[in-house]
């Protein structure tokens, strides 16, 4: 997959992205690109700068330095056009606890100016993709965390974006919920370009063939899973991903 990356159209581009909070750098010169149709895992320990980088990529925060592009659109100068291509699932999912999924999706469809026919089609489609039919009339606050995540995904998918940026979509879920969310992600990966952050190594094995890894705000690996394993082997002769993770992220 990585070999093909260069010939694919770049849909998510981080070009020298840095974010400073005072003297602290949450991200430093992060550069990578995700080609059309790829599913890339964005890996790193807690506090590595994954969410910060994703927020810059989606245009939610301005980079201190560098450039973010979605489907070729600069997310600072041309955010509205870029956002048409983009579905974003932020770290803690949706925040409309008093609404039902049905009400929330209807609200966002209206906000996006969909016609009533288009609205019905799109809501039916995302309810199906995210397996929400059993909960669409329940308040979001009463749903399990797994369903809440899928409600967040349905909102991100409503306008049929071709690029998805998902910040830890399986964080805090039980194993069955994780299965449900992964199944949804795999389905989506058939037609979309996806960047998915995680610090769970099994996630990488289960879903992605390419990994971009950051530590302390810097990019430390960009390549396939087999290459990542080799870092583990160099560490102690084992080729487990946890050895590779340790080798690339341990404190100096
Ligand atoms: N608004 C802010 N002001 C100051 N520091 C911040 C701000 N946002 C993030 N940081 C810091 O930047 C670093 C990177 O945070 P970030 O949330 O991007 O990491 P992460 O890799 O997503 O971590 P996690 O896996 O825990 O979500 C952390 O040390 C965090 O405390």
Automatic annotation (TrEMBL):
Broadest EC class assigned to this enzyme: hydrolase
Keyword NAD tagged: no
Signal sequence region: none
Organism phylogeny: Bacteria, Pseudomonadati, Planctomycetota, Planctomycetia, Pirellulales
Protein name: Putative ABC transporter ATP-binding protein YxlF
InterPro entries the record matches: AAA+_ATPase, ABC_transporter-like_ATP-bd, P-loop_NTPase
Species the sequence originates in: Novipirellula aureliae
CDD domains: ABC_DR_subfamily_A
Enzyme Commission (EC) number: 3.6.3.-
GO molecular function (one): ATP hydrolysis activity
Residue span(s) of domain ABC transporter: 12-241
Keyword Hydrolase: yes
Keyword terms of this UniProt record: ATP-binding, Hydrolase, Nucleotide-binding, Transport
């Amino acid at each position: 997959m990585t070999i093909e990356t260069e010939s694919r159209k770049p849909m998510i581009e981080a070009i020298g992205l840095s974010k400073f909070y005072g003297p602290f750098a949450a991200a430093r010169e992060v550069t990578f690109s995700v080609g059309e149709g790829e599913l890339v895992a964005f890996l790193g320990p807690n506090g590595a700068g994954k969410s910060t980088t994703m927020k810059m990529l989606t245009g939610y925060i301005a980079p201190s330095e560098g450039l973010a592009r979605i489907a070729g659109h600069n997310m600072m100068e041309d955010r509205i056009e870029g956002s048409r291509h983009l579905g974003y699932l932020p770290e803690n999912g949706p925040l409309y606890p008093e609404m039902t999924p049905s009400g929330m999706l209807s609200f966002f469809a209206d906000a996006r100016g969909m016609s009533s026919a288009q609205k019905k089609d799109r809501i039916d489609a995302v309810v199906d993709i995210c397996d929400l039919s059993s909960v669409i009339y329940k308040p979001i606050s009463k749903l399990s965390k797994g369903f809440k995540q899928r409600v967040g995904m349905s909102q991100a998918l409503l306008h049929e974006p071709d690029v998805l940026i998902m910040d830890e979509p399986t964080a805090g879920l039980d194993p069955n919920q994780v299965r449900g969310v992964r199944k949804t992600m795999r389905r989506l990966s058939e037609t979309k370009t996806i960047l998915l952050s995680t610090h769970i190594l099994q996630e990488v094995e289960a879903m992605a063939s390419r990994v971009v890894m950051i530590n302390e705000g810097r990019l430390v690996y960009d390549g396939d899973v087999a290459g990542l394993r080799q870092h583990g082997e160099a560490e102690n002769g084992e080729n487990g991903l946890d050895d590779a993770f340790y080798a690339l992220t341990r404190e100096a």
